[in-house]
Amino acid sequence: MATSTATAFPVVTERTPVTAFAAARTSRRRSISPDAGHALLMLGHAIEYLAEDLMSEDLMGEDRLAGLDVARLQAVELLMDLNREVYTACPELPTLAERWRSLVDLFRTSPRPKLHGSPSHSRR
């Protein structure tokens, strides 16, 4: 898979169906690095710019669903795919339940310290 020279994130060469992402868990938060955040910001601005450009031409009454508008729609779809790819490449954060379980497991597996007042110590 090729990578973008600007962000070093993989470039999508084939489209992934949206239903594959809809089936994935969407309620999980992700840890977004500063580089990924910057890439998401730039992609979001580009998507917004192209979408507004398409909408403003359509609202002006120009009937241009010819090759140029199809190319712009494909560009928006490509940017949206890249945006989704960058976002899903970020690691998911554990849920509160998962963090709680790992904390409990940590205490279960760690050796217990001996207390000074325990019966195993002899008094002088």
Q: What gross morphology would you assign? A: rod-shaped
SSE series: HHHH
- Total domains: 1
Largest sheet: none
Mean pLDDT: 76
Give me the Rg, rounded. 26 Å
Q: What is the total tally of β strands?
A: 0
Uncertain runs are none
What's the total helix number? 4
Helix content: 55-70%
Quickly give the structural class.
mainly alpha
End-to-end Cα distance, whole Å, is: 73 Å
State which percent range the strand residues make up: under 5%
Concise structural overview:
This protein is mainly α and 124 residues long. Helix content is 56%, strand content 0%. The N and C termini lie far apart (73 Å).
Layout of secondary structure:
Blueprint: H1 18-23, H2 34-59, H3 67-89, H4 96-109
Task: Report what the structure shows.
The chain has 124 residues and is mainly α. It has one domain (18-108). Helix content is 56%, strand content 0%. It has 4 helices and no strands. The protein has helices at residues 18-23, 34-59, 67-89, 96-109. Helix 2 (34-59) packs antiparallel against helix 3. The longest helix is centred in the middle third of the chain and has 26 residues, at 34-59.
